[in-house]
Amino acid sequence: MPITGLLPIRIDRKQSASDLERFASLGLPSMCRFLAPGLLKQLIIVASRKDAKIIKERLDCAIPFELAILDEDDICPNVSGQRGWYKQQILKLAAADFISTDWYLTLDADLICTRFIDERFLFPEGKAIWQRELASVHPDWWAGSRLVLHDGKHAALNGIVFGVTPALLHTASVKSLISRLSLLYRGSDWTVELLKNAHLDWTEYSLYWTHLSDSDTWRDLYSENCQGLYDLDSAWTPETAMKLSDTKLRSVFAHDSPWPFYVFQSRAGVPLSETIDLFRPYLDLPPTPLKLRVAHALHRLSAPAWRSAGNLKTLLRHISNKAS
Fold first, then answer.
1. CB within 8 A of 74, min separation 6: which ones?
2. Nearest to residue 229, comparing CAs of 134, 132, 159, 92?
């Protein structure tokens, strides 16, 4: 059973390395290396019209699955020009109308595929694996989604609920959620109404899971015996990134690892060139171009901690050593 991959990307030209560059350097190579042939029917990237050409040029390489770039204004025309986290979440739901497979896997630029993934791994006994977490981790998400859905089923704070990206979404169920929202907010577009209700702190996944819980269909779709989709002990912060050891990396990329993805957050503050160095042995990556290393080094110099002459020498020596 093939699936579709869905990745929203917005290029921030103020960053030393954009989400596009992170995905092209780590996420995409890891998917090409570890996804079973034929598993991914299509990778859909959702982007603004101005970013589409840059994305196509950067990713125009030999990959073992179809690549499609969709204009976010074609997916959500009624919220054209809006930006931000809530817009991105709406796009992940609205994209269901453009997906031809029964399931789609939501992705982001900080994800790295770490082990072989095939249909049997993602759908043990015919049901999808999912990331579990306690509702008490983000109680506002679940309370907000209940209000958005007009008294949807309340998630008990000690209950197990759906986690965050990456996530396997059932296409027909997402479309059912959209139909429900359209009926609830008849006379207005559901995407507009969700943006109006951003103050309620809903998320795309809490809306989706609340909808499945209300119809009591989640058990028909998702496995009740699974480890999840990503390692909770990922590099979320500068502190956790600094503690990442060779021993930990070997376990992350173990062939029998229970988690198929590892998160290395861009906000962890590690330059992309150094992140690539960490994962190169496991992904068989080519050397990072000197131009990219220099760009990341100059970006780091903008931080006050790096403005002393001593730190400048250290940084330049790092560039020289890595380039040789």
1. none
2. 132
Say if strands 103-106 and 111-113 run parallel, antiparallel, or are unpaired. unpaired
| Total residues belonging to the chain | 324
Rounded distance between C-alpha atoms, residue 306 and residue 303, angstroms: 6
Give the pLDDT confidence score for residue 220 in this predicted structure: 96
How far is Cα 236 from Cα 268, in angstroms, rounded to an integer? 6
Q: Is the dihedral of CA 278, 279, 285, 290 positive or negative?
A: negative
Three-state DSSP at 137 gives helix
Q: How far apart are CA 48 and CA 50, in angstroms?
A: 5
* Per-residue confidence (pLDDT) for residue 17, from 0 to 100: 75
DSSP 47-79: E-HHHHHHHHHHH-S--SSEEEEEEHHHH-GGG
pTM > 0.85: yes or no: yes
Query: For residue 259, which of 233, 223, 220, 222 has the smallest C-alpha distance?
Result: 233
258-310 per-position pLDDT tens digit: 999 999 999 888 888 889 999 999 999 887 667 666 665 665 555 444 444 44
- The residues of the chain scoring below 70 in pLDDT are 14-16, 288-289, 291-324
257 in helix, strand or coil?
coil
